[in-house]
Amino acid sequence: MNTWMTKNRIRIHRIICLYANVYVVTGHGHCFLVDTGPAAFQRFLARQLRRLGITRIHGVILTHSHYDHAGNAAFLQEKFKSRIMVHPKEAEYLKKGLSSVPGGITAFARVMERLASGIEPKMLEFPPCAPDALPASEHHKPFYDMPVTVMATPGHSPGSVSVVVDREIALTGDCMFGVIPKKILPPFGDDVGQMVHSWKQLLATGCHTFLPGHGFGVSRPTVENNITALSP
Ligand SMILES: [Zn+2]
Ligand SMILES: [Zn+2]
User: Fold this and answer.
1) What is the crossing angle of helices 42-51 and 73-80, to 10°?
2) Among residues 102, 203, 106, which one has the least CA distance to residue 157?
3) pTM for this predicted structure
4) Which residues have a beta carbon within 5 Å of ligand 2, which is an ion?
5) Could you give all domains of the chain from N- to C-terminal order, each with its CATH number?
6) What is the mean pLDDT of residues 145-166?
7) What does each C-alpha distance from 37 to 126, 205, 210, 222 come to in angstroms?
8) Ligand approaching nearest to the C-alpha of 22
């Protein structure tokens, strides 16, 4: 499934840029994006937006400033005059077009991290972009009358945020992964304890579905099971 609709008729459409998800959220006369995909997918993204009939984008919320989420922010800012919103703790990376490098959590990721340290700069760069601010408050409503809130969900990176739509569906960025069935811990992250805390905060919103930056949707029971598995 690539489209979801909430009770207040907010539509969420997922564009899959091979390995990274971009979400198009429309309703109440507004359209905004959550994440933008890697820069290598700029033309693909533009084509998908055209196919969906999107001509105006009021804002872009970046869940964090990694290259696979912020790669097309500069392009969208220029082409659609979109407001680019990111948590203040991620803003410096966006301005420089550099990803912060989170520590590897899984053994595989730790090996990858060691390998990446030699080649990292080029691979993790993306076109820089001057963001408009996103207040660091826990619950920020970026689109006036739209039932959408942004909440801080740190753990993967210090300024990671999630976007909660209608208290039904949360767009979580890399706060959780949907790549391996039933396992949501991302391979990379700064702080596992903080991430588990963020999962609890996400459950507290009442959402039934969590749509991550990579992979497929995650259900409430899956989040609950992962919290139990990682709790001491
Ligand atoms: Zn990330
Ligand atoms: Zn990512």
Assistant:
1) 50
2) 102
3) 0.92
4) 68, 174, 213
5) 3-120+133-230 (3.60.15.10)
6) 92
7) 11, 26, 18, 25
8) 2
